Amino acid sequence: MKRRLQRINLIALGWLFLLLLGATIAPTSSPPPNLLLTTVAPFHSVHWLGTDPVGRDVWASLLAGARATLQISLPAALLSNILGGTLGAIAGYFGNNRLRIAYGWFAALVLMVSGICALMGPLWQSLGLLVVGAVGLSAGLGWLLSSSRWGSNLLSVPLDDMIQALIALLDSIPLLMLILTVAAIQQPSLSGLIALLTITCWTTPARLLRAATLRTVPLQFVMAAEAAGLPPLRIVRKHIWPTIWPVLLARIPLSIALIIGLETTLSFLGVGLPPEVASWGRLLASSRLAPTAWWLIVCPGTAIFLTIWSLQALTKAKSSTLLASTDVTK
């Protein structure tokens, strides 16, 4: 059994290495079309994986699609896990009573968020200036109000309930439907798609890190740090985070696999990426123009399957070892 798992790990690592190598040597844009060689079958003297209905080489399209896949999935997975892990750890440690803020600063914060939401539509073209101005005004208002007797009173912020409510709100909407709706509205771009995937895929890491933090907070070394009077953020950064980070590390490959699946689906439906960017999903979609061109389904489909399978195989092989080495899962 152990040797079988080792062979599976070697196969998965080998495929991911080839994927990274292919993305490195891939062209930066889609291969040019050639209308004289449309829908050429594989094993051609020049196009050994064939061409699509507009004459683009399938091999070059696969390499360019690998580059686009890594350019999107790696940053989006890292950012979403960092965002979700940070929010989950903060929610698990601070709960609903640890974080206290003066009434004056809380009122200024509420007014700032309300003002930005109300003026975002009319001042969309000057959104950056709007945010800077709102932050400056709220800072002055918060300092002024907190100087008063009423504004200096402390208010317990239910941070855990707020983050859990946001997670429940995002999870109540089907993920693909939410991403597809927003991607269809916004202008296609790599950075926009990465931002969209980041703000929609952070909920699962947040739940995992919140649960891990709740199991870590009662431990003696955390209680000793609190008794010593260390600042809460330092306790989270120096004592809790080193204990729970393997949970996030085990989740990252699954996040990459999820984001690859979402990006491929969006590309297949024709949204999310600019037209000049090659994608495995776009290559799959070209099979609708030539239903008999089986290679347009087999080649990108095999690449997608092997990539997602490799990531899941590595996660399954390593997660038990990583989690068993921490107090979180004991």
Automatic annotation (TrEMBL):
It is found in: Cell membrane. Residues 66-315 form the ABC transmembrane type-1 domain. It comes from the Bacteria. GO terms for biological process: transmembrane transport. The keyword Membrane applies. Coiled coil: none annotated. The chain crosses the membrane at residues 72-94, 101-121, 127-145, 166-185, 191-209, 248-273, 293-311. Keywords: Cell membrane, Membrane, Transmembrane, Transmembrane helix, Transport. Pfam families: BPD_transp_1 (PF00528). Its main location: membrane. It is a multi-pass membrane protein. GO terms for cellular component: plasma membrane. InterPro entries: BP-dependent_transpt_permease, MetI-like, MetI-like_sf. Belongs to the binding-protein-dependent transport system permease family. This is ABC transporter permease.
